[in-house]
Design a protein that fits this description.
By secondary structure, this protein is an alpha/beta fold. It has 14 helices and ten strands.
């Protein structure tokens, strides 16, 4: 397909103190086999050499431009501000984080699926996350899947195919029609936003590793793991969108099961000790539920942990060590403590 016949893809790259990784990111964009793209790099008041690196690339390729925020914005607010800068004539939108990168066929393969199936609102693919390949749940060759079915599977089966915004291609008109696109009050807004879109559109998928997510200290992902935001994010997802995809009995079952595991985790966290930031976050999220933050359920969670410790002391000690070690290394301690994985 010649460039003139290709639909425009707007690439959005939020940037904050990523000077060490930015060249690799932009070079991966320049290496695309798909030509009709433009890229806006949104510098969120970086204090390192990020802006200078970005401007060097902009001077070499007219498809790249740099925007400097006047004031620093929180991460998700910055993502929304960056999305508002996409080109007016773009048909598709691709977020590429400044510390991540995309493989050469990323745009070509994703756009091909979207162009062949006009019912598709979001396109995903396999993701290289650190050394692991993720988002591999769809059976081959599932190129187009009913959006409602994907969301139901995500809720009922913990079916993980969305990855992060770096993993997905969005239809640009769907991004423009939601302002703000991401819920700035939810650190897991990237997953949440897929649900209202896929209520009305299909999910496209490419069975190929097309994007890469860097695992590093200081990232939003690391911050999320430190205070275990995934538990609250999963609860918020059920409360906001559960009724759109689940029956009342299914939703009740999932909510009861998740809250039980959530409070058991909080009970274990109370015994281990956690920061004020940790408790402030979880109290505020639970207070949005109908019953609010329940001290009774917290104490019940503590009791469950104590009883389990008495009945299974060796396993409990191993889990406690995994919990503490995971926090120190920035890993996900909840994975070792409960079946309710966010």
């Amino acid at each position: 397909m010649k460039r003139g016949a290709q639909p425009r893809v707007s690439i959005i790259t939020p940037l904050y103190n990523n000077a060490s990784d930015l060249s690799e990111c932009i070079n991966s964009i320049l290496a695309q086999t798909y030509d009709n793209w433009d890229c806006v790099i949104v510098n969120n008041c970086s204090s390192d050499d990020s802006a200078q690196v970005a401007r060097r690339f902009a001077a070499m390729d007219g498809r790249i431009r740099v925007h400097d925020n006047a004031d620093f914005l929180p991460p998700i607010a910055n993502h929304n501000a960056a999305l508002r800068l996409m080109s007016a004539d773009s048909k598709y939108c691709k977020i590429v984080f400044a510390d991540d990168w995309i493989f050469p066929e990323c745009l070509e393969r994703m756009v091909a699926v979207a162009e062949a199936h006009r019912s598709v609102g979001i396109v995903g693919a396999y993701v290289l996350e650190g050394d692991d390949v993720t988002c591999t749940g769809l059976p081959y060759p599932s190129t187009v899947v009913d959006g409602r079915d994907v969301c139901r599977s995500h809720l009922l089966l913990k079916f993980y195919v969305f990855g992060s915004p770096n993993s997905l291609l969005y239809r640009a008109d769907l991004v423009r029609h939601r302002d703000p696109f991401f819920n700035e009050d939810n650190i897991h807004a990237d997953t949440e936003v897929c649900f209202p879109i896929l209520k009305h559109f299909d999910f496209g998928f490419v069975h190929q590793v097309l994007t890469a997510t860097r695992v590093r200290e200081g990232s939003l992902r690391t911050k999320s793991l430190e205070i275990q935001t995934g538990l609250a994010g999963w609860l918020e997802l059920l409360l906001l969108h559960g009724r759109d995809f689940l029956s009342e009995s299914e939703l009740t079952m999932l909510l009861d099961g998740h809250l039980s595991g959530y409070y058991r985790f909080l009970g274990k966290s109370l015994l281990l000790g956690q920061s004020d930031e940790f408790w402030s976050y979880h109290r505020s999220k639970l207070n949005r539920t109908r019953e609010g933050f329940s001290r009774v359920r917290l104490m019940r969670g503590v009791a469950d942990v104590v009883v389990d410790a008495a009945l299974n002391p060796k396993r409990t000690i191993e889990q406690m060590r995994a919990h503490i070690g995971g926090r120190r290394r920035g890993l996900d301690p909840f994975a070792a403590l409960s079946e309710h994985r966010p």
